[in-house]
Each structure stands twice: as structure tokens, then as C-alpha cells.
Amino acid sequence: MKLPVLATALALILTGPAHAQDRLLNVSYDIARELFEALNPAFAAQWEAETGRSLTIDMSHGGSSRQARAILEGLPADLVTFNQETDIDVLAESGLLPEDWRDAFPNGASPYYSLPAFLVREGNPKGIEDWDDLAREDVAPVFPNPKTSGNARYTYLAAYAYALAQNDGDQAAAQDFVRSVFANVPVFDTGGRASTQTFAERGIGDVLVTFEAETGQIAAQYEAEGFERVTPSMSLFAAFPVAVVAENAEDNGTTELATAYLDWLYTPEAQRLLAERDYRVTDETVAAEFADAQAPVELVTVDEVFGGWDAVSAEHLASGGILDQVFVNR
Amino acid sequence: MSTAAAPFRAKRVLPGFTLSLGTTLLYLVLIVLIPISALILKGAEIGPAAFWAIVSSERAVAAFRITLTAAAIATAFNAVYGLLMAWVLVRHDFPGKRLLDALMDVPFALPTAVAGLSLTALFSANGWFGQVLHPAGIPVVYTIWGIALAMAFTSIPFVVRTVQPVLEDLDPSLEQAAETLGATPWQVFARVVFPAILPAWLAGCTTAFARSLGEFGAIVFIAGNLPGQTEIAALLAYIRLEEYDYNGAAAIALVLLGFALVLLVLSNILQSWAARHREATR
């Protein structure tokens, strides 16, 4: 009785290494679960066709700052796909990857991008079209806590940039505007997905502010609710930066594989999968294919308006900074 | 007293008192003492002036005030309801009693985030309870009542499970004696039953209060998380961590730890008082 069992076990052990098994850990932001569930098999198929080696990609999703902290504390990520450049900078500061990670891939290492946009209830009963509607007293916008959510940090900066543009760069007027937007928020969740729940499931608020890509996904998922997507006239370019976590990838022997994966994100095949999920892409041919589905919008960047992320961190996001002033003293 | 006074000389249930004590102490040091020391050291690193600046900032003070107020509301509710629950479980027989008894431990076993999500779903404006409460002008979710509700849910077993055994030990003949002497039911409760369970009940309430202070998972879903209004201390510590501000998080955590330690010491004193009280009335 025991011999066959032993033989099977031996056979399993012996045949094990014959199948070369590659493995990657992609540590990513909160709302990208479905996106990478679609991207990973496509890349794995291509990798197997090219090299004959099978590939497993493990995913870890969460608020991007929390994910960065997990990596700092030892989560062996081979690569990161975040929605916030500052969170990769934190990794660079601790030496996990080179300071010039933005130069490793095209477009500042951002294969796709998005922008803060709106999702309103069926028929847009409050007539919400642009950022100034969010400051109206009868409108309750829903977005997460900018202190815990990269997503909401973009919302804050986009509203701020809009107000600056409307008021000829008057900082005080911009702060007043953002303060009145924040004063209308009925609940601050800790992450983008929690805010989606608050808006869609609990029926709180008149408008959900989140990445355009997420508004598309929610509208599709809650089809029965008839949510409508609204693109404001102006918004903030939100890079979705990617990087190989050099130190971990070296230890795991996955540098080549991780680089190949991130390079692949720029191919038309991957760009199409991204555009289908309402991300805006950098491949012009693919972008043209989806032009009808993505409303035109004036995009400004953090560099243009705020002088880069370092300045944003120091002036806006630091403890006691402008965000704290408008957020805490609502 | 006689059994309690003849401890580890005569019969040892576990082999070697020294070995058992050594193992438990080592475990305690590794699992509890070292992490707490690390937290305290982190706090000491900050320096008293900076520490005070962090914990006395307007936002932190508001967070502590909200946490303490909600915990007080939750404990007040549990003090009454928990006592009632323990009474029902001990003194009454009815079908499904054992099931109810088992259900009492659900808050211990359930992931608190799940509890928070379920409570939010029930009490939100379009939830089962919320549909009734909201039109009546009693919003629960995203207010301090929501925080208190989540705290009450996760800490109720502490009251029930400390009062229950004492009630079970209480000799019903004492109550019968009081009744035969002409006491009204209320007098029996106030003069005979309540004094006997008072220490245990207070100990249970104190532990429930301490547990409420530390609750996080359930609350972040049902609280509005608005700074200064519905932001609890544990969430503020979490936010500080998200900002890579380890000192800020440690300082807030230390204050919570301080509160909890004081309460737990108090609870232990009450429990030993309860034990002596029970010996005396036996």
C-alpha cells in the first residue's frame, strides 16, 4: 500500500523542477485588481510562447502608501505599479531602487494615465458639470481621505489647480474654494474602494470623485443604478508609475522578467486592454481607437501647477500644510 | 481559603513550577512586553516636548475626545444590556438558550471589519434599520453614534462573560430568604444580587471600555472619519503611518496604550476584589 504513495510522491518531486516556474510579485494600488487580472494572463501567455516557461504573477493590492510601507518593511515585491510617484520615491530614498527610476521606462515610467473625474446619479439631478459645482452648498461630493488615499490626493490637487486657473493663480482664493469643497464631504473613507461603496451601495452623496478609469468600471458594474460619468472641463494628469524594485528583483533573480513585464505594458496589446478599462494610454494608435469613449479634457500636470511632487509634499501634504488647513479646519 | 492557601507544594498538575513559570514568562516577554517596549522606546525617542506637541495638537485632542466619548456611550449601553443578557442566560430557561449563549461570542470571532461593514449596511440611509431611523431624524452611520455602536458590538462579550459566572455562583437561596423576609423583587435585586455581582460587573465594564478605545476595523467603516468630528484616535495613528510619520503614530498609540493599561489595572483590582467578595459571601 505504501509503495505506490511513495512512488507518486517521488515522481512529483522529480518532475517538479522540469517545469520551469517563474514567479513575480506585483504590488499595486487599491483599485487595480480587475485591471491586472486582465493584464496578467495576457503577459503570461506571451512569456510562455516566447520562452517556454510558465509564469505565475502574484498580486497584492491596497492603498499605495500602505503598499510602499509594506515593501519598506520587507514585502518582497519584484515590481510596483502605483498611482502615486511619491510612493516610489520613498522606496528610492531607502535604496530599494535607483533614484532615476523615472528614466527606466518611457513617459516618465508611466505606461498609462488617468485623471480625477466625476460619477453622478442617474439623470444628473444636481446638474454637476465641473469642479465649481462641488463647492455648491447643495452638493455632497464623496471621495476618500487624502491623507490615506493617493486617489483623493489627486482629487484635492485637481480641485486646487482648477481654482488657481479660475482665480488667476490666487492661492488664498484657491484654498477657500478647496475648503468649501471639503466642507461638503459627508464621509471620508480610507481608500477609493470604500468610497465607491459609500456612494454606490449606501446611496450617500451626489457625486463620487475618483479616477476616470474607476468611474467607468463602477458605471459598468452598477449598471442598474444608471450612474452617469462626467468629465470636468479641466483636470490633473495622474501618472500611474511603474518600477522594478531592483534590490528585491536581484535577490529573486527576476530582474529580466520584471523588466519584460513592464516593457510589455507599452505594447499595443496591453495598451488596448488598459484603454478597454477606461485608462488613457500613451500609444497614439490605440488612443485614437478609443477617442470616442474618452471625453476631451484640458489636463495640467503637478509639475506645471505645483512645481513638482517635492513642492507638493512640502507645501500641501506635510503635517500642518495647506491640506491640513483646509481639511481639518473645515 | 484552605484550598487557596495550599498551592504549589503538594500536588503539581503541570510538571515543574519553575519550567511552567519560565515558559509563560518568556512567552509574555516575547509576545507582549517586547512590542510594547519597542513602542515606548519609539515614543521616548521623540522627546517630551515634541511628544506633547503631537498629542496636544487640536486634531489629536479631538480624536481622543471622540474616542473616549464614544467608548463611554458604548460602555454605558453594554453595562445595562450586558447585565441583562447575563441575567437572562443564567436565570432563565428557554429553547435556544445554548445557541444564544454561543452567539454571545460572535463579536470575539468575527473580523471587526466585517462587523463594521455589516453594521454600516444595516444602519445606512438605505439599510434595513436606517430606513426607519433616518426619516425619524436619527442618523447613526457617519456620526459618533455609529462609532459607539461599533464599539458596543465588539465589546459586549466582556461584560456578559465576566458577570455570568458570578451570577451562576450566586446562591438562589439568598434571594429566597430575602423574599420570605418580605423584600420586593427590586429590593432583592438592589440589596442582594447587585452588591454580589458589582465588582465583576465593574471589571467587565472597564475591560469593555479598554477594548473600545483600541477598536479600529469596525469603526472606520461606520464613522465619517471627519477630522475633529468623527475621527477616532486609532484612525489618526493609522493616518500618521500612511504619511510615513512613525513618531506621530507612536505618540498617539502610546496615549491609547496608557489609557488601556490604567483601565486594565483597574479591572484587575476590581476582579481580585470580586474574588475576595465571593469568598466572603460563600
Summary keywords:
heterodimer, A: 330 residues, alpha/beta, D-Maltodextrin-Binding Protein, domain 2, 2 domains, four-stranded mixed sheet, 49% helix, B: 282 residues, 78% helix, globular, MetI-like (chain B), Sulph_transpt2 (chain B), transmembrane (chain B), ABC-type sulfate transporter activity (chain B)
Description:
By secondary structure, chain A is an alpha/beta fold. Chain A contains 17 helices and 13 strands. Chain A folds into two domains: 21-113 and 239-293, Periplasmic binding protein-like II (D-Maltodextrin-Binding Protein, domain 2), CATH 3.40.190; 116-236 and 297-326, D-Maltodextrin-Binding Protein, domain 2, CATH 3.40.190. The model of chain A is unreliable at 14-19 (pLDDT under 50). Chain B is mostly helical and 282 residues long. Chain B has one domain: MetI-like fold (Orthogonal Bundle), CATH 1.10.3720. Chain B has helices spanning 2-5, 17-46, 48-55, 58-91, 97-103, 106-109, 112-123, 130-133, 144-169, 172-180, 185-214, 217-222, 233-242, 246-281. The longest helix of chain B has 36 residues, at 246-281. Chain B is globular, with a radius of gyration of 22 Å. Chain A binds chain B through residues 63, 65-66, 69, 90, 145, 147-148, 185-190, 194, 201-204, 317, 319, 324, 327-328, 330, and chain B through 58-59, 120-121, 124-127, 141-142, 220-221, 224-228, 235, 238-239, 241-245, 248.
